Amino acid sequence: MTITSDHRSRPGRRRRRARLATAAVAATAALVAAAAPASAAVSPGVANRIVAIAHQEMNNGSHNHESGGYNCNYYSGALGAGAACSNGWRSEEWCADFARWVWAQAKVDNTSELTAAAASFYQYGHRHGTWHAGSPSVGDAIVFNLSSDGTYASHVGLVVAVSSSSVTMISGNTYSAKTGTTDSVAQETLSRSDSSISGYTDPLGGAGEPAPENALQSSPVVQYGTQMQVYGRAGNGHAYAN
Fold first, then answer.
1. Could you give the CA distance from residue 50 to residue 45 in angstroms, rounded to a whole number?
2. What predicted TM-score, i.e. pTM, was given to this entire model?
């Protein structure tokens, strides 16, 4: 559930009531902090693995597209989710299945809390104190069009590069310029001010891992932003099925 404050200042409120309201805000903040403590940032090693695996899967011709029927995909099959397809894969809207499969392969903690719903990445972040509206990092989940109650989102992808003005993601069940449908793993770069972006969730994991020699966080755009083809959108909006 989205947390909103009921304790904004109101005209005409007496000072005593204002002091009581301030105390209530502090108490509510303490409860929220106890329920969802801010977790330590993910290690550079985990973030690197997320980016590397996402790129590998985007370029893996045996996994990176639907086959065997509508929404039949490798990632739902690997997770044992959805309905059976004729080729052994499984069918359901699969942007979240792609993202949670990649996170699991990268050894992100607590991926069992994630589901086929894109909004489960918001709920994961809220639960662990890693949901944020801005300042994306590579490895983050990027969530689109989150409902006011936090139970629905239209799409989720994985951040693979960041600049001061743009964010690049790889996601499943997304638009492919080659096929003109939302049946692929593909990459897209969009403005960080895009109104469809609701926020980001940092993954958990990698505590105690040594930092890799070439951490992607230091220069993600140099290492990845100029090397991969960027796929377009359908029209002016996201042609996302999940």
1. 9
2. 0.73
Q: Which residue has the higher pLDDT, 214 or 124?
A: 124
In DSSP terms, which residues pair with 200 in a beta bridge? 132, 142
Rounded mean pLDDT of the chain? 75
The confidence score (pLDDT) of residue 210 equals: 54
Q: Are 90 and 81 in contact (CB under 8 A)?
A: yes
The tokens of 72 are what?
């039949």
- At which residue do the structure tokens 């001010």 appear? 193
How many Å apart are CA 87 and CA 130, to the nearest integer?
A: 38
Instruction: Report residue 79 as tokens.
Output: 């997770």
Helix (H) or strand (E) holding 141: strand 141-144
Tokens of 199: 């926020």
pLDDT-based confidence at 30, cuts 50/70/90? very low
**What's the rounded Cα separation, in Å, for the pair 102 and 99?**
5
Please say if the pLDDT value at position 9 is more than 50. no
Exposure string of 126-154, with b = 16+ CB inside 10 Å and e = fewer, is bbbbbbeeeebbbbbbbbbbbeeebeebb
d(CA 104, CA 156) in angstroms, rounded, equals 15
